[in-house]
Amino acid sequence: MSHCDAIVNLKQGAPPVSIVLPNQAAYLMNRLTACGHKAFAVGGCVRDSLMGRTPQDWDICTSALPDEMKQCFSDLHLVETGMKHGTLTVIVDHQPFELTTFRIDGEYQDGRHPKQVRFTSDLKQDLSRRDFTINAMAYHPDAGLIDPFSGAADLQEGIIRCVGTAKKRFEEDALRIMRGIRFAAQLGFAIEEETAAALIDCKSLLDRISAERIRIELDKLLCGAGAMSVLSQYREIIGQIIPEARPMFDLDQKNSYHIYTVWDHTLHVIDQIKNTPLLKLCAFFHDIGKPEMMTVTEEGWGHFYRHELASERIADEVLSRLKYNNHTRETVTSIVRNHSIVFRPTAKQARKLLHKLGEEKLRLLIELEYADVKSQNPIYTQERVSAIRAFSEKMEDVLAAENCFSLRDLAVSGRDLIALGMPQGPEIGRTLDRLLDLVMEEELPNERAVLLHSAAEMLNLQANVIGGKKS
Ligand code: ATP
Ligand code: MG
């Protein structure tokens, strides 16, 4: 196996960028060439290499027909991922590589899939079916960079541009609309004028695209470094896939805590929050219920009482529709439901919230709160950030001291209560909850003797009440 690399000059005067094929990709390409076929690295891996980023995976396109690929690699582990469309996955060193025959997509039906694909021996035809110029480049160490649509120049300039007529390309496959804004957000690129106009023009075609395909692009978009500006500029696209977001767009909050509309505030929170898909979703949905819960006083002051419950309901509906998994749905809705809690720097509150949410979710909630207050009126930021920090320190203290915050940690158990004479049944659970509350409130120490004494008192009281009723 050999290391192949090459220097590519994107533009006169620009520093050269090198493409380094991983050994396994070079090996596969060399074997295809030895069998008499053409083979190139193509798409995302070429784009990412030219940008100096490490590609996630290396796709290879080839003039070999699917059966010819199989023949050429009959000694390797093959997975027939999409032979009809020309795609074969070859495993080398436990790593999968996708090999696809050069192809021309036939006519598209219903804005999603080509009716049929035709194989071709012409690389340029294969490149012309790809979505954006920056994704339509191929590379071979001997042939160099093959770039018929000036993708390298667009990469240099930071431009997303469709290959061919933008409108036609979005009509063929509307997912490209989401891919376009996703790449703009991930790479921090601008969208070229014709492509941008066509995105908006064709947005209703997104209704035909499956939830799963949209969800994948949405996650990548929200995690993109340039998400704030893209979401702001292309909010119409978001309104198409999530119409529930529309009422946020221009909603003035009419109070001194905020300097942005609900939408702009939301975008700032998305920008500020730590970069994980879960947290980005919490940020996206946290205030989505505000429009429907807004009330304005006679003096013109806006309130949003209990908006977190409306946000929770909408988040649940949208996340289900977009087929997010249960863990994501459950976590996001629970963080959103609790995001209006006012943190106090007390061990009591830390214990209660740890009990209610668990450590993992409480940590996520703290992250949302930090991002939320940093996106409000800056005159309150310092004070509010300090309050969250003070609470977070208390939480760490409670966790470090393993202070009591769950029934498991309570110094008495259900068995102890039965031994005291309490009959088996729901009252046992209720009594344990009451004891836990008293411990978390610091009204009782978490000590067995004290808790048993208190439980006995509760039991007596109950017996008296029941006795009283009887007589
Ligand atoms: P990522 O880094 O997110 O994987 P990528 O560009 O590699 O980005 P893939 O979805 O892996 O994206 O697709 C690989 C290549 O296939 C793209 O670079 C592009 O050339 C082509 N492609 C993918 N989806 C489409 C599409 N919907 N329409 C046209 N070409 C597409
Ligand atoms: Mg890829």
From TrEMBL:
Names of the cofactor(s): Mg(2+)
Domain Poly A polymerase head intervals: 40-161
Gene Ontology molecular functions: metal ion binding; nucleotide binding; nucleotidyltransferase activity; tRNA binding
Keywords: Magnesium, Metal-binding, Nucleotide-binding, Nucleotidyltransferase, RNA-binding, Transferase, tRNA processing
Any one Gene Ontology BP term: tRNA processing
Domain tRNA nucleotidyltransferase/poly(A) polymerase RNA and SrmB- binding: 188-231
Domain CCA-adding enzyme C-terminal: 298-453
Any single Pfam family the record assigns to this protein: PolyA_pol
SUPFAM superfamilies, alphabetized: Nucleotidyltransferase (SSF81301), Poly A polymerase C-terminal region-like (SSF81891)
Domain of life: Bacteria
Family according to the record: Belongs to the tRNA nucleotidyltransferase/poly(A) polymerase family.
The protein's name: HD domain-containing protein
